[in-house]
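Section handout 9: paired folding examples.
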Amino acid sequence: MFYNWPQLYAKALVDVSDVAEAVAKTQGGFYDVYAPSAKVGGQWLAMPHSIVGNAVAYRKSWFAEVGAGEFPKTWEELRRVAGALKTKGHPYGQTLGHTFGDAPTFTYPLLWSFGGAETDRTGRTVVLGGAPATDSVAFLQTLWKEACDEGGLAWDDTNNNRAFHAGEICATLNGASIYIVAKRQPDKIRDENGKPLWEDIDHAPLPAGPAGQFPLYLNMEHGVMEYSPNQKLAKDLLRWMHERANFEKWFEACGGYSVAATTSWEGHPMWQKLDKPLQIFRTAARRTRIFGYAGPSTPRATEAFSKYIVTDMYAKAAQGMKAEDAVKWAAQELRKIYG
């Protein structure tokens, strides 16, 4: 199950609190994103399993050419640096399409980093229409024109990977796959000088805005269906999967692409063996939020997510709609869901 799906199927899921609490107790506890995602009415209705993090893959040498020894830490710095790179034919690559991961994991953190939110803490009042959201959209318009590959509006989750490997963009938000694939195919994926591209790739978090930096990662869980005749067997399987000796094999095979749901795995020896660009994913899950913020991640929040309201708010602005009008449109769409 992805994200907060246990909230959607709550009436059809078996309580697996006995499994979840035992694993959490012995493995350092779950990351904060799991309680609002998989816990309903005080019960764990799904067993947290893993989190796929993301980070900005970027070309170290190209950034150095414009005076950036590291990836920009703020959005404004990124606008300046990526803008300089765009003038050299190396724009920043970002989709604003209806993708599974790469668009919403960019647009929600952008909104949050400016202090914006979909609802208040109760989840009953839409608060998107304020200045923080408008400021974030106005910034995106500038970033898009000055620094981005404007064809990204039509991209899916594969286009940025291919564009990066082809040397068409300087950076893009992605999982670890751009780096991993480039390293697996050093003879095929090379830079403009004929050298293996993976040697020029590093990772960094998305930049911070006025309110900070808050990512959206893909958290996963396993649920046991109420209608199953094998509920005990299913729970026994979950226990077996999360025994350290068994889970460790899966964890090591992922090589940082996907990390555990519990915090103790941050100290696993595997991290010391991984390449430096992959080590950023060791602690990536600590601060991830879930859509619906600042309210609870309810089925209504999922409906808004599945309709790409936040992503479309930015896409409309990138295509020329005024920032305040794009925000007004998005707030109206949210009110249709939240009432």
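Moving on to protein 2 of 2.
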Amino acid sequence: MGRLYILHESASGYGLFIASGIDEIGQNTEAVRNSVTDLNRFGKVVELVAFSPFESALDALNQCNAVSEGQMTDELRNFLEISLPKVKEGKKPKFKLGVSDPKIGSHIFEETKIPCESNEFDLELIRGIRLHFDKLIEGLKPGDLEKAQLGLGHSYSRAKVKFNVNRVDNMVIQAIFLLDTLDKDVNSFSMRVREWYSWHFPELVKIVNDNYLYAKIAQYIGDKAELSEDKLEGLIDILGDEDKAKEVIEASKASMGQGLSPLDLINVRMFAQKVMDLAEYRKKLYDYLVAKMSDIAPNLAALIGEVVGARLISHAGSLTNLAKCPSSTLQILGAEKALFRALKTKGNTPKYGLIFHSSFIGRASAKNKGRMARYLANKCSIATQSSSTTFGDKLREQVEERLDFYDKGVAPRKNIDVMKSAMEIVANEDTEMDVDKSAEPESKKSKKKKSKSKSTEHDASENVVADGDAEEPKPEKKKKKKRSIEEEAQPIDNVADDAGQGLSPLDLINVRMFAQKVMDLAEYRKKLYDYLVAKMSDIAPNLAALIGEVVGARLISHAGSLTNLAKCPSSTLQILGAEKALFRALKTKGNTPKYGLIFHSSFIGRASAKNKGRMARYLANKCSIATQSSSTTFGDKLREQVEERLDFYDKGVAPRKNIDVMKAAMEIVANEDTEMDVDKSAEPESKKSKKKKSKSKSTEHDASENVVADGDAEEPKPEKKKKKKRSIEEEAQPIDNVADDAGEDEGTEKKKKTKDVEMEDVPAVSEDHSPIKITSSVRYSSYLGQLKHLSKGPNPHIYE
């Protein structure tokens, strides 16, 4: 075996090493991998032969660019010829050169006939050299190599970004990605506007079919109760049809939709406005894409359309990559999954990919779609490789003729005739351009001569000195020229710090417009979140306090309503949102999911991996209780319980019993109810005193004015008695409609008993171990009686 040399390209220079001690560690890759970390052992394997440092940072950047592209520079060639053993002519070299990249190895062999190799064994040696490079090279100070690597890395990345060949294509790629995303978002948002506003005005969906017009109408109408003939002109301007506008007004008068609160209407109209703004921005973005495609790939845009052409460029990565693709690859571009699946299953390969969205494929009959796709891909491949705009129109004419040939049998023109006519048109355009260019310099020269003669006459008449001579401005002109040359030589931006590429004014306008839309959507998202928080605090305050407004709203949305969610057992609530995973596990007899939407709670994220399932089960239990209670106190207490259970799983701190927490919550609720009763009782007394005063004044006033014939005033006492009887009856009436209510006396006795009843140490469950729904303070006595009875049962701590 001959000698093995290793070439290593570092940030500071080229290094050449010889692998001399391979016999000590063995010639397999595993032995080298084990010896790399130990410098004493690896130092016996490789020895430094030569080192050639780079002259400057610019030289290092040029060498790095050449190596990354697989090219050998003159400096590297001279270094290898001097450092490696010389080979006599006609004899094979008795050594090999190990390199990191096979491309540069093949180029070195073509130029210098030095045999190169790049295998796993060589790469492990290069990895060890890279690890201990600063210690293998004498004269390198600590930190010098890191500084060189940092500087070269910045320069290399900056040059790659600034001088990117595909920088123009990036604008098209970003625009088509954003356009497709906007199509999906605007469609989904429009459907959300329809669903949201249909609760208020359901008849509008059948009258207005267009999504954009529906959002505009919803934003204009607002509350349907305020819609009248005064808004007819505005509706006509939006719809463009007087009959439809009148139909909308008539439908609003007999609408069966429910009323919306002012807060809900504000949010519906705000959301409709955002949908309209996105739809308008989508139109502007499409115009921008059309303008960019006409500059970058006019032939492809003329042949297959701007949108489909931009999708092909985006999928290929750049216009250059698309031009390199053969027509067979371009035909199925975008259908890679179907192709590999067909190759794996030995089925039929796909006939078309992204090219299917072209209007030509849609117009072709079913039996000719594959042939049409193949022909169109052929013409697209030609269109990407030509720069003249004439070819795009001619190629489109060819595709139209081929389509007529498949459908009607009309023979198309030959390809050579079409290309010949296209070449003649291009030649005529070039000659016209040459004539225009030759005519422009002559006109410019005549204009310059006239301007110079005028300027010399003007200077001679004005710039006269005391001795009668005119000042000569020639030295000043020279200085100006020198300054202008220096200014041109000076870069506009600091090139050392500027790593970005330039953008055209049109690109900058669209980038800033898109950034503004993102900011507007972010601000609207904040407002929508505040609206959701307000609605959740009214509808499900306990669930919001326990698990958060967003997760709680997702659970309600998935269940269909808060009532449906309250009917769900805790085991169902735990996996709500993971139905697909559940049915798949039941079908394959695998592990069922541990959590669904409840996984997004912060409690599940804070729990350890082994306790996530237990935490999800416990949290679902508490959520089931929270959906069935109306007092806001229970939400905070349930959250405290979950926090304590989390500490118990992580730290082993014993939590409080469920009975103690529920007892404390019940006491707080009872105190709140008593305070409310005191406030309610205080209000009638103050009202009575005010009424007495007002009545006394009114009686005096009536006695003085409303005197009857016999001189007696009217007495209001019977009216007072009636009011007292009504208030007593209303107080005796229970809050809930109880079928077997005993009457006024029994009701007052029950109220007295509830005040004397002491809270028992029992859980908040019923006989069938389901949570008891607490509706009002009237039910506390029966509720406590059930708890006292159940506390003697077999499982009093079911919710612990």
